Amino acid sequence: MPHIICCVKQVPDPETPASQFRVDEAAKKVVPVPGIAPVPSQFDTIGVEAALRIKDKTPDTTITILSLGPESYRDSIKHSLAMGADEGVLINDPALYEADHWVTAQVLAAAIGKLAPFDLVICGRQAVDWDMGVVGSTIAEILNVPCITIAKEIQYKDGQVVVERVLLDGFETAESPAPCVVTVSNELGEPRYPQLRQIMAAARKEVKVWTASDLGLDAAQLKNLVSLERLYVPEVKVETEIIDGETPQEKAEKLALKLREAKLI
Amino acid sequence: MFEPTAEESLIRDFVRQVARKCGRDYWLAKAREGAFTEELWQELAAGGYLGMMIPREYGGGGLGMQQMAALLEEMSRQGIPLLILVVSNVMDALLIARHGSPEMKERYLPPLARGQTKFCFALTEPTSGSNSFRITTLARRDGDTYLLRGQKMFITGVDVADYLLVVARTVPYDQVKDKREGLSLFIVDRRAAGVEAQAQDIRILLPEKQFALFFDDVRVPRQNLVGEEGKASRYLFDALNPERISAGAVAVGLGHLVLEKAVAYAKERVVFDRPIGGHQGLQHPLAIAKTNLELAALMTRYAAWLFDRDEDAAPSANMAKFAAAEAATEACDLAVEVHGGSGFTGDMDIITLWPLIRMLRTVPVSREMILNYIGEHVLGLPRSY
Ligand SMILES: Cc1cc2nc3c(=O)[nH]c(=O)nc-3n(C[C@H](O)[C@H](O)[C@H](O)COP(=O)(O)OP(=O)(O)OC[C@H]3O[C@@H](n4cnc5c(N)ncnc54)[C@H](O)[C@@H]3O)c2cc1C
Ligand SMILES: Cc1cc2nc3c(=O)[nH]c(=O)nc-3n(C[C@H](O)[C@H](O)[C@H](O)COP(=O)(O)OP(=O)(O)OC[C@H]3O[C@@H](n4cnc5c(N)ncnc54)[C@H](O)[C@@H]3O)c2cc1C
To answer: What is residue B308's predicted lDDT score, i.e. its pLDDT?
Structure first.
C-alpha cells in the first residue's frame, strides 16, 4: 500500500484586502489581520488533491499530512484531513518558529524519515506567503531522493512516479522510481472541498504532535542559514498621464510613441 | 462551548472555499435575474451539507443545530445566504425526521440529503401570520385521502420545490376547545392537481421568490400526514425554534458582512484631516454595533447548543433571533451612514442587503411577537394581547 506524505504550510489568507496588509518593521513580521483566519497554502492544498487523486485510483494508499508550525497550524492539517487525507503530524516546537527554509527542510526531512517507509512526498511549488520555492527540492536533497518540480499531474503505479511538468511553453513528462519528492503547481486543478462526512471524521482524528527532540534533532544545532535583514512594504508610486487627441487613432499613435520612448514596446 | 468545534471551523472553511466559486457576485447575478442558485445548491449537496441535520441512517450527517448555524452564519458572511436551506433542510428535515413514519423518512429524507428534492414550509396565511393558530386552510378526511382547501401567503421557494410541508387545520378553529388542537402537518406534492402558485411582488434581492398558494380540494394521501392528526402544534416548535436560531445565525453573518465593509471604509475614507473612523461620532457606533453582533452571536450559539442537548431552547432561540436581527439592522444602517452617498450605490453592495437584513426583524417572527413571548413566558408577566 502506497504511502504519500504531503507537506502543508499555513499562511495568511492571500485574499486579505491589500489595504489591510501590514508589517511590523521592528519585529520583521507580518501583522496578522484580526478576523481573517489563516489558510493552508494553496499549492499545498493542490498537493493534497494530487495525493487524493492517486488514492482515488489506489484506495489502499495512506496519505499523511505533515506540518511544521505552532498549534494554530492544526487547522490546516484538519482541513487536509477533511479533504480525505488519513493522518496528520504537527511538529510544534517554539525553538523552530523562526526556522528558515533550510531548517524547515531539515526538520521536515527528519520527520519524513520517521514516517518512512514512504513512496512519495508532495510539496507545493512554493508557499504563497514568501514564494521561496525551495523547501521541496531541499527535502529531496537531504533525503537523497529524486525531485520533480512544478507538476500538473502525478501518476503512481508499481513503484514508478510519472509526472507531467509545466514548462514556460508547454509540458514535459518525467519519470522517477519511488521514493521521490514532487512539487505541484496550480495547473493540476482545483482542490476538492472538505466533505461533511470527512469533516466529522477529521474532527475526531488525533493529530500527532512532535518536537525537535522527538525527531532526534537538537534544536540548538538547527541554525538558520538565511537572516532577514529588513521587512517592509515597498512604496509603489503610480503616475497617471492622460493621453489626449482628437481621434482615437491620434490617441493610439501618441500612446504608442510614449510607450516606445519608455522602452516598453 | 465558547470555542468553535473543529467541525465548525472546517464547515466555515468549506463555505469560504465554495464562495470562491459561487460567491457574492454569482449570488447577486442569480438574484437579479430571478433565478435560483442551483450550482451553489449542488455544491452544498456534493459536500454532504444539505443532509447535515438528517439522521445518518437516512443518508445524512446526523449533526446538530450548532454546525448548521455555523454553515448559515458563514454563508451569510460571504453574502450567499439561502432561505430555502433553512426551510427545506432544517425545518422540514427535522419535522420529517422526528415525527414522520419510517416509510416517510425512507422516501423523503435521502433525496433531500442528496439535494435532489426541495421542500417548502407553508404556514402563513393572508389572515394569520403572527397568530398561526387561526389558520383556516382545512384538510377534510375523505376515505383514504384528505381534501385540502385554503390559501397560504409568502411561501418561499415554491417554484423550485418538489414538495410543500403544509400546516392545515383538521378541525376548524371555532370547533376546538383548545386553540392548539386540530392542527395537522401534510406533505403535499407541489404538482398535485388543485395546487396553484402565484409569485408575489417581494422587493428583497434574493435568489428565492415568495408565493401565494391556493389549494382547491387537493387530494392528499393519508400516508402523507406527518405524525398524528390534530397534534401538529406539539411538533411545530421542533421546527420553529431551529428557524429562529437559523434566522439569528443569518442575521449575525449578514451583520458582520456589512460591518466589515463599514470598518474598512472608515479606515480609508478621509473627509477632513483623517480617516472618518477616527471620529468618535462614527467610531463609537461602530464599536457598539460590533459588541451587539458578538453578543447576538453568543446567544445564537447558546440556543443552538441547548437545542442539540434536547433542552428547552425556546427562550434563548427567541432572544437570539431578536438580538441578532436588531444588531444586524443597526450594523446595516450604520454601514450606509459611514459610506455617505456611496452607501446608496449598487457598487458598494450595502443598500442591496438592507431589505433582507431589515426583513429579519419581522420574519420569520416579528420582534413584537418575540417580546410578547419573553414578557409572558420568560418574565412571567401577564399576557399582553
Ligand atoms: C421574504 C419572506 C419569506 C417568507 N417565507 C415564509 C415561508 O416560507 N413560509 C411561511 O409560512 N411564511 C413565510 N413568510 C411569512 C412570515 O413568516 C410572516 O410574514 C410573519 O410571520 C409575520 O406575519 P404577517 O406578515 O402576517 O404579519 P402580521 O401577523 O399581520 O403582523 C403585522 C404586525 O403586527 C404585529 N403584531 C401582531 N400581533 C401582535 C401582538 N399581539 N402584539 C404586538 N404586535 C403584534 C406584528 O409584530 C407585525 O409587526 C415569509 C415572509 C417574508 C417577507
Ligand atoms: C440620492 C442622492 C442624491 C444626491 N444629490 C446630490 C446633488 O444633487 N448635488 C450634490 O452636490 N450632491 C448630491 N448628493 C451627495 C450628498 O450630498 C453626499 O453624499 C453627502 O453630502 C455626504 O457626502 P459623502 O457621500 O461624500 O460622504 P462623506 O463626506 O464621505 O461622509 C461619510 C461619512 O463620514 C461621516 N463624517 C464625515 N466627517 C465627519 C466628522 N468630522 N465627524 C464625524 N463623522 C464624519 C459622515 O457623516 C458620513 O457618515 C446626493 C447623494 C445621494 C445619495
So the answer is: 96
Chain A hits for B267, CB-CB cut-off 8 Å, are: 19
Compute CA distances B51 → A8, A139, B112, whole Å.
30, 42, 7
C-alpha cell at A250: 491620434
d(CA B51, CA B83): 16
pLDDT band at A20 (very low <50, low <70, confident <90, very high): confident
Sorted by where each starts, the structural domains of chain A and their CATH numbers stand as: 3-221 (3.40.50.620)
- Give B49's contacts in chain A (Cβ within 8 Å): 196
DSSP 3-state assignment of A228?
Answer: coil
In which residue ranges of chain B is pLDDT below 50? none
Going by alpha carbons, the residue nearest to atom 28 of ligand 2 is B340
C-alpha torsion sign, points B232, B236, B237, B238: positive
Out of A19, A39, A193, name the one closest to residue B14 (CB): A193
CA angle A71, B75, B21 (to 5 degrees): 90
Q: Does B260 touch chain A (CB under 8 A)?
A: yes
List the single residue in B with minimal CA-CA distance to A40: B13
Under 8 Å CB pairs connecting chains A and B tally to: 56
Provide the 3-class DSSP secondary structure of residue A193: coil
Instruction: Please give the pLDDT value at position B113.
Output: 97
List, for residues B232-284, the tens digit of each pLDDT value: 999 999 999 999 999 999 999 999 999 999 999 999 999 999 999 999 999 99
Mean pLDDT of chain A, nearest integer? 93
Q: What is the pTM of this model?
A: 0.91
ipTM (interface predicted TM): 0.78
Q: Write down all domains in chain B, each with its CATH number in brackets.
A: 6-117 (1.10.540.10), 120-230 (2.40.110.10), 234-378 (1.20.140.10)
Predicted confidence (pLDDT) per residue in A92-145, tens digit: 999 999 999 999 999 999 999 999 999 999 999 999 888 889 999 999 999 999
Distance from CA of B63 to the nearest CA of A (A): 9
- The answer to whether the beta carbons of residues B136 and B127 sit under 8 Å apart is yes
**Rounded Cα gap, residues A230 and A260, in angstroms:** 36
A55 close to B (CB below 8 A) = no
> Which residue among B363, B365, B383 is best mutated to probe the pocket of ligand 1, counting the most ligand atoms within 8 A of its Cβ?
B363
